[in-house]
Design a protein that fits this description.
2 copies of one chain form a homodimer. By secondary structure, chain A is α/β, with parallel strands linked by helices. Chain A has helices spanning about 20-35, 60-65, 80-95, 125-130, 135-150, 150-165, 180-185, 215-220, 245-260, 275-285, 295-300, 315-320, 325-340; strands at about 5-10, 45-50, 75, 100-110, 190, 195, 205-210, 225-235, 270, 310, 355-360, 370-379. The longest helix of chain A has 16 residues, at about 20-35.
Amino acid sequence: MKDVYVIGAGMTDFKPQPDVPVHELAFRAAWDAISASAVPLEKIDIAYAGHAYQGPCFGQKTLMRMGATGIPIVNVENACASGASAVMGVIHAIKAGEAEIGLAIGAEKLTSPGGGFLPIVADDLDSAMGRVMPAAFAMQARLHMERYGTTKEQMAKVAVKNRRNAMRNPRCHMRKEVSAEEVLAAPMIADPLTRLSCCPVSDGAAAVVIASGEVARRYAAKPVRIAASVLVSGSRTPYGIVDDRSEMSIRASRKAYDIAGVGPGDVDVCELHDPFTIAELIHYEDLGFCKPGEAGRFIDTGQSAIGGSVAVSPSGGLLAKGHPLGATGVAQIAELFWQLRGEAGGYQVAGAKVGLAHTVGGGVSKLESGACGVHILVA
Amino acid sequence: MKDVYVIGAGMTDFKPQPDVPVHELAFRAAWDAISASAVPLEKIDIAYAGHAYQGPCFGQKTLMRMGATGIPIVNVENACASGASAVMGVIHAIKAGEAEIGLAIGAEKLTSPGGGFLPIVADDLDSAMGRVMPAAFAMQARLHMERYGTTKEQMAKVAVKNRRNAMRNPRCHMRKEVSAEEVLAAPMIADPLTRLSCCPVSDGAAAVVIASGEVARRYAAKPVRIAASVLVSGSRTPYGIVDDRSEMSIRASRKAYDIAGVGPGDVDVCELHDPFTIAELIHYEDLGFCKPGEAGRFIDTGQSAIGGSVAVSPSGGLLAKGHPLGATGVAQIAELFWQLRGEAGGYQVAGAKVGLAHTVGGGVSKLESGACGVHILVA
């Protein structure tokens, strides 16, 4: 089976950009990724574009801006895992021998036209009954607090850490440090989650150029190998009305570790799906960075900070960098690419060799099924 | 590279089914395909679901009805080529060695909530200016008439043929024969296209089970080999304001013929993208069944009828069977699967050995880019 590598990455700022068409955002990210890879445009064999709400033929509308309209372009949707699914599609095409070089794009514009409110889906009973995302995560937080004694202060530390990381990443939406006291004192959204415990409403796009091994070494002095690309589906809450773990994340990460031949202890840098502070704590446990119930202590002891045992979301994560849905999964791969090449500037994780990207999305109840993507990259 | 085969197919009726949820339609098609393949549910490694307008996590919502929520599920959109893109995604996953057996689903519900009108896309200048699909195809028809002397009567014969084919296919939406005179006398939609020159507004779903060679032979006595799976992007009108050919169809079919090692003269049965009568004539030429300008004579001499040199859309095609957007590309593969196994019942093409599926979609002008999928299947 062919080895597959990332050889270029591009990304726009993540922030409200209501006046920039989303195809323009995606185009800029794609252009930057292609330029960074030094791959001539005509050498790109296939593109996958991940997004959730940006309309028909999104990838085509993006790539025709650079004249690349002849290649196969597939638009994929998988809620918050849309970007991860786009990356997987390109990887499969290359491994299949159907492409040597491919482009994965992720993009989303959340500030318009809905002003940050996701479109209501007619058959989404959960949302109709009030179990919108902040409420669902608040219930998770309550359960984790109840079961393990996790505190609001520990949750607040996630926001503090990711905001601090974001101070060094110019692409981030939220570039202002906050204290735990400020997080706790912010307006309540869904108890115990305050406004500073939730990711902001951002627009943005990211892209990566992926190539087979032979070709990758022709273009890149330091290609970054994709050691595992895993997508799973499932319910967010298979075990009950509310779960304090993510079964999809557990299953996807275990499979990815097996394929890559590494374990949680080998991961130097992780871009983790943290739309709410509690999510990051729960996912420490899901991804095996600590045992169930120990996430509070994990953040308390600074193990997920830059310089800790595994730097989690040095980019700022969804909480501080922003979460333009379809962009996120691709942006995570771009961030790991930079980290594993030592090109992450002020938020570089020293000596990072193994990176893990994790994104999970979809409906919030047993009645809904979503997707989780885990990629492991190795320098 | 692995050989890939179709080993099962399922399909709902194509017709208005306003009271059936679209996930239920897709579930029924998927269930029938899996049952037909005799593959145990837990042996299916991946699923791709193609649709254009059916909302987030469509594939997940469909497959959780049968408990298959753990596998990777990717939702793809590519306008009318959404179904073909889903098929390609599964093929790539299998060829990549990431799956042994995969499921491609296509589905669409057009009767609700919009009552058959496609959602207006904010940046679609063409539609806003009145160049909706019937108008665009009418302009193509006018150009073909002007350039080659193609007649309204020749166009009408396409509807007559496909309606006649549909009389033998119980899944079709339009199961009533029409005469050329009736087609010509029907209410005018966009001159020269009358209502009987246009495909109806249908709901429906289709699914196919695809497997690698080793596995296919374990389950199917007569697996049908997918000899080429080609997707391209491009504009419908790269050469001018209106074109009387489809550059995407020409390019995709040439590439597919090359890969499959067959030519247009080898194709026994073709499921062709015929949303309007003129489209079928133009695509005869695009796919190489006849030379440019000769499509009128091709239908006049009965060469595209069942029993002719290449039976085109024996299923009834989009014109008579219906065109639930995302379903169409998968349904074409299902139809070819049945034809090449001799299981097409009343509309069987005797001795069919080579089948071609062709679907093309996306915006109508130079400013818009779409997708075209061509698959070649061999008995």
